[in-house]
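Consider this pair:
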Amino acid sequence: MRCLKITLKTNSDTRWASKYNTVHSLYCQFGGVIKALRDISTNPIFGDGVANAESILKQFDLEFVYFLVMWDKILNQIYRVNKLLQSSNISIDQASKMINCLNVSLQEMRDSGNEQIKTEAISICDKVGIKSELKIKRTIKRKVMSGENSSGEDISADQFLTLEYYKVLDNMMAQMKWRFEQLSNIADDFQFLSAHSLSVTPVEKLKKYAADLAIKYNEDIDQEIINEIEFFKYQVKAILPDLNATALNILNAIKKYELDSTCPNLMTAYRLFLTMPVTVASGELSFSKLKLTKTYLRSTMSQNRLTNSAILSIEHLSMK
């Protein structure tokens, strides 16, 4: 429609980015959506669309706009970190730091309260001609304990919006802490292998960390890594003048100076760390590409050809 500059996006259960795109496209052009719906609702040429447009317009109130603004701000933070986590060059320690920073930003949003969101929602309602008034009361049902009355608790609509704001943020932070706890633990296990830690951490502590790593990954690393880390601590300054070097830089330096025969377990540890996937984005991409490759017109494609076509589609950048 001429009222909209960007097409409204649909939500997808399998792609997290679609949630932000759906909310943000509506948030950015909410006024245009209202205008388009009002035009449809007053034009009989649209037939059944007139009743549908009127029904949708009735659902747009201050409460709807408030949640639209709230989710746009929350998903904006999550979406950008999500895009960074899908980078092919990101390591687990970098991902862990980004997620911690995301938690800090959400905590700051929680601490600052929801007054700014309320103000913006009221301003948007005034611009598009929606009543900027909230319902007088809401009844919250809660679990009744033995001996208590079964009546609900009456709260104002303003209190309801505030409670929902804190509930969403608390749930978000709790879920991220639970989901990425293992990622944080793995980053801590390999933290002593960073260039900075190797240069400033005492030898005895490095040997303890190396022994713990050998116990945890005993199928790939043996206890000889304790002697290797003691040797490598004093060599890292010679091969890496930059103490901010990444794990990949250290691994390349080990290969360049032919230390892989001297420190095989250390090299294995760096390879383990760098090959651990940060996200399952590549797996999700595989399923998405598979659906695009095997369409209705290609329903007779053999399994072997389908597999090869999917790999070519997924890795098309590497094939150029």
